[in-house]
């Protein structure tokens, strides 16, 4: 099976299946078949190297090693590739959609986590590891949205390739990065909002009246709702640090 055949057959799955669990199950079988060959991926790599305009069609992503292979015209799914640096370890994160993750080359491991705190304290998250397994070439794993899909991938080799399929995004504008040891969680916004959100967050740690004045002024400015939320949280932080 090549990429085009995979995309056509997976598109057909959505015509007969409404239950996402079944879509994922059938998608995993198809993705395993796609990963039985690497010639289609080598052709893709050749095009990325030689065709500058094709390369520029790749949109900026939060992951620098991400390649867009296919965007379903119906909007049902996207197919992405990730090329791993030697022994690269991902940050623990969640997702805005369901996803199927396959290994095309190398040896990759996946740790899955679940949240065991109540999610009521901003920035705090306690995780528990629920599984740790290898995803060998031709094998797949999957995630569901948000708290149901917290995981971390790790490349155990010099070079590895993951082929991932993701469903429709929840479009909340961010996902979460977790730190297991420090029990922290942060909102990782889509670019270019990420820079602005980090700027707002940082003002919440600044001493003196300037930061407070800037943040209060922002409450009356026409900025994105997501940023407004960050402004409010930063002001809460500033006020709490002064008490
Ligand atoms: Fe992931």
Describe the protein in words:
The chain is an alpha+beta fold. The chain has 2 domains: 3-189, Jelly Rolls, CATH 2.60.120; 193-242, no CATH class. The chain has 7 helices and 11 strands. The chain has helices spanning 3-16, 20-34, 39-50, 52-56, 193-203, 209-218, 225-242; strands spanning 66-71, 77-84, 92-93, 99-105, 108-115, 127-135, 140-143, 150-155, 160-167, 174-179, 184-189. The strands form 3 sheets. It has a 5-stranded antiparallel β-sheet with strand order 1-2-9-4-7. A hairpin with a 5-residue loop joins β1 and β2. α6 (209-218) runs antiparallel to α7. The longest helix has 18 residues, at 225-242. The chain is elongated and about 65 Å long. The structure holds fe (ii) ion. The site of fe (ii) ion has 3 residues, from loops. Fe (ii) ion binds next to loops.
Brief summary:
With 243 residues, the chain is an alpha+beta fold. The protein contains 7 helices and 11 strands.
> Which structural class do the helices and strands define?
alpha+beta
What separation lies between the terminal Cα atoms?
64 Å
Instruction: Using the coordinates shown, work out and report the CATH topology of the largest domain.
Output: Jelly Rolls
Number of domains: 2
Helix content: 25-40%
Number of helices: 7
The general outline is elongated
Assembly type of the chains comes to single chain
Overall residue-averaged pLDDT value: 95
Beta-strand portion reads 25-35%
Flag low-confidence runs.
none
Order of helices and strands: HHHHEEEEEEEEEEEHHH
CATH superfamily of the largest domain: Jelly Rolls
Computed over alpha carbons, the radius of gyration is 20 Å
